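Consider the following input, taken from an annotated entry for tRNA-dihydrouridine(20/20a) synthase (Azohydromonas caseinilytica).
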Amino acid sequence: MNQALNESLSPWRLSVAPMLDWTDRHCRYFHRLITRHTRLYTEMVTTGALLHGDRPRHLDFNPEEHPLALQLGGSEPADLAACARLAQDWGYDEVNLNCGCPSERVQRGAFGACLMAEADLVAQGVKAMRDAVDIPVTVKHRIGIDRIESYDFVRDFVGAVAEAGCEVFIVHARNAWLQGLSPKENREVPPLRYEFAYQLKRDFPGLTIVLNGGVKGDDEIAEHLRHVDGVMVGRQAYHEPWSMARWDERFFGDAPAERDRADIEKLMVEYMARQASNGVAWSHVARHMLGLWNGMPGARRWRQVWSDHRLKHEPPQAVWRQAQRPAAQPVSEPA
Ligand SMILES: Cc1cc2nc3c(=O)[nH]c(=O)nc-3n(C[C@H](O)[C@H](O)[C@H](O)COP(=O)(O)O)c2cc1C
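Applying the prediction step yields:
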């Protein structure tokens, strides 16, 4: 690796977004096989789930996943501090506070995007977490809520939270609408305003500003990196995982990736076999890699095999062999 170049780059230069039900530890293991340097985020975990629930289930990860951030949902400073400590003790590299989720369930818990209207409370939470841990405490947020269109709102939010010691802001560059849209719809509307994220970087040059929302190709990433410190990619990375294969070389100055898709698939089969011995069904792992061969001949049939529930009692190696067969062979034919 080109050490000199790499050390000068922000650790937040590229990341895969936290995505509930998607970026679990198996997904992150898969992504890490494709890109060594991209920062990975857990799904959001609520402070209540961590303080009162099954901690290993929420917090355990594979050592290969570093650099790795735990995303928290919560608003009570003492709870956030306790959970940040858990994150540090468990070995996470960062703890991130979700101030961007518009779901009504999340609002009822008084966290997520509605916290953008309570910058002081977020600042208290950040301060409590920073007092509790040495790992970076970061915030992921929107550029506004509901019909607040003015840039001043997000500038003041970032200013107040930065005062409390937060140095890294991940900006999903569209407003959160707290009513009338599902979270899914609210990832498409209202429109993205990248200019707000760029302006934050100009107004707070000492902060790390990471842009998120609707980013697709590598050239788009490169363009954003001219204006901000980092780019976070969500759905594109998940649906087209091979799009991350060039990132280490292009954005981190590392050597070209040596593994091809077949190597990654083979490593995933080995991982599935290890997980099976812990009682994890291969389908829980395989569901995250269904986009691996997108755009290549036979990708559709390959995907069908890896999502075929009739094969659920087969060992992953057998499913793998089936997935390698020429397209003419029916999926259900016994091995
Ligand atoms: C299925 C799904 C689940 C998500 N869950 C979370 C979450 O737990 N925490 C969070 O901050 N954002 C969550 N998001 C939002 C993403 O982190 C990201 O901000 C959003 O998808 C925009 O980025 P993209 O256009 O690159 O996907 C989720 C998005 C999706 C698609």
